[in-house]
Amino acid sequence: MEIRADEKIVLKPIDKENAILLFPLFKADLKEISRWFPFGEDYIVDYDLAYVDEKKPPFDETFVIYCDGVPCGRAGLYDYDKKKNELFIYYWVATPYRRKHIAATALNAVLNYLKTLGVHRVLFDVKNENVSSISFLTKLNAVIAEENEKYTVYSYALSTQQSTGLLLPNQRFG
Fold it and tell me: 100-122 pLDDT, tens per residue?
């Protein structure tokens, strides 16, 4: 299912074609991405292609983010807890596409999509040194659910007043 965020930003479920198209940008950022996510620098597109066949939408899904028809990032859903009706979400936007409201616009679209599925809460697992994501989540009004010396888990409620904290496309963040 395609998610249209606005006239420029569209999210499409990862498939073999868009995984291959996005991979050069992913590979260019892999050294940085490996600091935040469990990807080694030896990551190859075949890992994404294997996931395409194993994912179980709607709660286990990776979306490729398109800006003006060009793949430029990813947002993914994982570890759905049916009992708590919550799941984890991650996002990444390639370096050339940052600071253009793409992450906020795409994330708003994913959060609105999850609301339609009846999900109550999303969680973001962030390394404490990832200042950009922490700043972004603070502006989203996500709250700290757990923390230790390496990671902080931010929680964002979709079913309460807190959900009015969605970023507007014209808001800027660091």
Answer: 889 989 999 999 999 999 999 99
Count the neighbouring beta carbons within 10 Å of the beta carbon of residue 160: 10
Residues 21 and 125: beta-carbon distance below 8 Å: no
Q: Is the pTM of this model over 0.90?
A: no
Distance (Å, rounded) from C-alpha 77 to C-alpha 124? Answer: 10
Which of the two residues, 173 and 151, has the higher pLDDT score? 151
What is the average pLDDT across 126-147?
88
Contact 151, 128 (CB under 8 A): yes
How far apart are alpha carbons 48 and 62 in whole angstroms?
A: 10
Peptide bond into 96 cis (omega under 30): no
H/E stretch holding 93: strand 86-93
Question: For residues 93 and 23, what is the distance between their CA atoms, to the nearest angstrom?
Answer: 12
* List of E strands, 97-168: 121-127, 143-147, 151-157
The C-alpha atoms of residue 47 and residue 51 are separated, in whole angstroms, by: 6
Residue at 91: amino acid letter: Y
